[in-house]
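Side project, low priority. Logging it here so it doesn't get lost.
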Amino acid sequence: MKRLVILAALFITGLSGQMALADNDNSELDKVKLVLKKLMPKADPDSVKQSAIPGLYEVVLGAHVVYVSTDGRYMMEGDMYDLKNRVNLTENKRQAGRVKALDDIKQDDMIVFKAAPGKVKHVITAFTDIDCGYCRKLHSQIKDYNARGIEVRYVSYPRAGKNSSSYVKAKYVWCAADRNKALTIAKGGAKLEQLKALKQVKGKDCGPEIDHDMKVANEVGVTGTPTLVMADGKVLPGYVPPAQLLKYLQDEDKKNKK
C-alpha cells in the first residue's frame, strides 16, 4: 500500500538528505517536492500543497494523505479537523482519492448486480473475496439489496494474494461467459473444479484484470472484505444488512442536501 511505501522510504532513506535539501534556496513547496522525490523516486503524488495549518504541506497519494513540514524535515500522518466547521479535512481528501481510484476500473470489468430499471437509488462498489464468509452472506441477500434500489458493483480482492486459491477462483468467475451466474455459484461454495467447468470467454485471461483490481484496492485502502465504497468515496468496512445499508445511504443523502 502507498502508506507503507511512504513510511518504509522514510526510515530507509533517513533524515540527513532531507536536512541538506532544506538548506538550499528553493521555495518551501520545492523543498517538500524534492524531499518526496528523494524518499519515493517512483511515486507520483496526486497533489502537494499548503495545508490548512501553516508550516505543514499536504501530500495526497490516492486515498492516502500525509503532512510534511515546510523545511522537509518532519512527516506525519493522521486526521486534520476544521473545528470551526466540524469537518474532517483529511477524510475529505481520502474520499476524493477513492473516487478517483475507482474511476480507473471500467464498469465492464466489474460484476454488476443491478436494481430494476428506473428503480436505482444508490450505487455501491463492493470489494469481495470468493471465499470470504461475510462476502457470501452479503451476496446471499443480493436480491434484497437490489429490491431496495441498491446497485452492487463487485470488484475482486483475493485477500490471500496472487495465485492463492481465492485468486484462481476469481479468475474463472471473472472470465466466465455469464459472470453474474458464476459469482453466485462461487459464493454458494462451489469448488475450483466446478468453476473450471463453467463456460469461459474464449481466449481471455482475467489475471491482469484481477491484478489491476487488487492494485486499486490498495490505493483505496482496502484491508479486508467485504469493503463497501459509496459513490462519494465514503467506506463501510464489513457486511451491512440491506435495510441498514439503505438507511445509511438515505441518511447520507439528507446530509449532503443540507
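Brief comment: The longest helix spans residues 242-257.
Revisit when time allows.
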